[in-house]
Amino acid sequence: MTQRTDAATAAKTAATSGPDTAGSPASAPTLDTDALLDDPDIRIVVCCGSGGVGKTTTAAALGVRAAERGRKVVVLTIDPARRLAQSMGIDSLDNIPRRVPGIEGEGAGELHAMMLDMKRTFDEIVEAHADGERARAILENPFYQSLSAGFAGTQEYMAMEKLGQLRARNEWDLIIVDTPPSRSALDFLDAPKRLGSFLDGKFIKLLMAPAKMGGRAGMKFLNVGMSMMTGTLGKLLGGQFLRDVQTFVAAMDTMFGGFRTRADATYRLLQAPGTAFLVVATPEQDALREAAYFVERLASEEMPLAGLVLNRVHGSDAARLSAEQALAAAENLEGGGIVDQTTGKAGLRDPADRSADSPQAAPAPGSVPDTTPDATPDNSEREDAEDREPTAGRAPDTPGTASVEELTAGLLRLHAERMQVVAREQRTRDRFTALHPEVAVTEVAALPGDVHDLEGLRAVGDRLATGSVPAGAA
């Protein structure tokens, strides 16, 4: 399945061919996130990806960067961990957008943030589309309370509803959405269809039939068909539960069409040219496999893909020393000597080995040994001298103290591990690029710690914009 491309999409992603990476079979276009955020025609950015890849941090960092570049931004998160609130210096987020302090820069705009309250959003829909008495009956209905709090797909559907509400208010010129942490990050695309199918299903229509049929016909239907159905379902589900469902359906009857209409409108909004999807992944096999699925799914749904954000990429400023070379050097140090050293360069070898081939180990042919008493100190004097002044490059014989050679070998092994990680990440990315060469990519170097404030989000934003991994990335 190929990714939909057109001139408008290409302009919005600002993708340009980057330099070939050593060992890479193909060069992916580079995603210019600043051009994306600066484009006034882009009104919605949706960050999607599998769990644990940094969607929330990416969404927040994009929000901070867009606001400091002059846009009025709201970030909508569905992350129950509340990391977004903490990183933005807000005590808590709720269903109302909150202004984020500390946005800096000449010509800076505004940043607001909010976290979806699924049940409150559902309540708002009921209150907005039903009169007072009916709304109260719905809100107090036990089946509604269960549905609004945890029905499968409700969270994703309410995320779509909230996005539609924010866009309809036209108060912000950029909305950034952090998608729900569900098993499939694109469940929110299916949620309107699933909820619509539930509301339009045969079971719901059957429950609604008695309320819609009046007079004797309705009573006859109720007494014959419904009595059989309710009797059977009552045994399976419980009589009180069934009555709650019927009461809920009767009260919600006039609202069902509105759910489907709004869901369809929001779905079309996601397909519009003013929307851009960013797939977020880490350079791991499972995450990029999911990313490939997202790319193909977005293409099939005709959703405009801006590109891939590759998070937590590792690099090294000593890349010229390969993993193999580092491991070989470490083994030589731990073995007590560099295997390819020549005579006269045995400074790292064991002293016993050096004495065997030292020029002073045996007298030269025809020479006379020096036998004067003070020519060579005795063994006790040599041992005392070694105790007083350790030889350069060797640590004293103190228990628990590593020699310079041992420390160096350990560092070489750490470097070898890092280079192996770098090579594995590059191979994984190359496989994704080979499958989807049209997808623009930006890489975000791994940070040494968690992001917990605006400065950390700015650092992520800078790395998103540069689109490359610094040589000394952590």
From TrEMBL:
> Spans of biased composition, class Low complexity?
1-16
Query: InterPro entries in the record, alphabetically?
Result: ArsA/GET3_ATPase-like (IPR025723), ATPase_ArsA/GET3 (IPR016300), P-loop_NTPase (IPR027417)
* UniProt protein name: Anion-transporting ATPase
Ranges for domain ArsA/GET3 Anion-transporting ATPase-like come to: 43-314
Renumbered residue ranges of the record's region Disordered: 1-34, 337-403
Regions of compositional bias (Basic and acidic residues) in chain numbering: 347-356
Identify the species of origin. Answer: Streptomyces gelaticus
Which segments show compositional bias classed as Polar residues?
Answer: 369-378
Pfam families, sorted: ArsA_ATPase (PF02374)
Task: Identify the CDD domains for this entry.
Answer: ArsA (cd02035)
- Give TM regions: none
